[in-house]
Design goal:
4 helices, two-stranded antiparallel sheet, 126 residues, 31% helix, five-stranded mixed sheet, Nucleotidyltransferase, domain 5
Length: 126
């Protein structure tokens, strides 16, 4: 895994996955979170966080520093804890390809990102 250097507009995004290809897991039931550094120009797999025991606080601790986390579902208590740690949660009802979502994020970052992404970038001072 190659880390990309700090450059303007990079966000760190985690995807809850059980098959390593899709956003296909409930936040509390994910076997792994694949973490990517994403900018308008490129994306690189930063790390893979393996989840052993199903412990919400431990999972969130492993995701500190993440800007956005994607999953198929999340409980209300876990959602509140994620938001309180400064991580923006995004829920998909259907299974979605991680690569497709990365492509959407890259395009969004290169054009006109929504206010929540602009706020993330401004907060990081990028």
């Amino acid at each position: 895994m190659q880390k990309i250097s700090l450059e303007k507009g990079i966000i760190k995004v985690a995807f809850a996955t059980n098959d390593s290809k899709n956003i296909d897991a409930h936040f509390g039931g994910a076997k792994q979170f694949h973490i990517y550094n994403i900018s308008s120009e490129k994306s690189d797999l930063y790390s893979v966080v393996n989840i052993g025991e199903k412990d919400t606080d431990e999972t969130i601790a492993k995701l500190l520093g993440i800007d956005i986390v994607y999953f198929t579902n999340i409980g209300p208590t876990a959602a509140a804890k994620v938001i309180n740690k400064g991580i923006f949660p995004i829920k998909y009802k259907e299974i979605v390809s991680i690569n497709n979502e990365i492509d959407k994020l890259k395009t969004m970052l290169g054009t006109n990102p929504p206010p929540f992404i602009k706020k993330i970038i401004e907060k990081k001072g990028a």
